[in-house]
Design a protein that fits this description.
Number of strands: 4
Number of domains: 1
Strand order of the largest sheet: 2-1-3-4
Number of helices: 6
Radius of gyration: 17 Å
CATH architecture: 3-Layer(aba) Sandwich
Strand content: 15-25%
CATH superfamily: Glutaredoxin
CATH class: Alpha Beta
Largest sheet: 4 strands, mixed
Order of helices and strands: HHEHHEHEEH
Length: 140
Amino acid sequence: MKKVVGILFVAVMAVVVMSSFAGKGSGIKFSKVTLENAKKEASKTGKLIFIDAYTDWCGPCKRMAATTFQDPELGKFFNKNFVNLKVEMEKDADRMEIAKRYRVRAYPTMLIIDGDGNLVKSVIGFKTKDQLMAIAESAL
């Protein structure tokens, strides 16, 4: 029995390690900047800002982070056209401003705003790659 448990443990760890390496270099790259700096970058580059407003306890948020946001095609599109931010809505510094200004009350909420901070699109709930791509394309 100990051998079976040991083999299962090793197999699970191998999958976890391989999954973490598989996601490197693909998917949406989220900047670690403030909203104010993202607005400056968006204005300078002519891009829109994509915000993933999430919480650590949100199941659909975790699922999107592990699946939708890791898609290489989606990542290529978003990285080219948007300044991408992830904002943990219970911890990050910009959370209060974002929650109040853009009326974030459910998770995940994905926002697309312009360099002046004007809301272009707001969507709530889990989205597949195709759904998120359609939303982004309509915002552009």
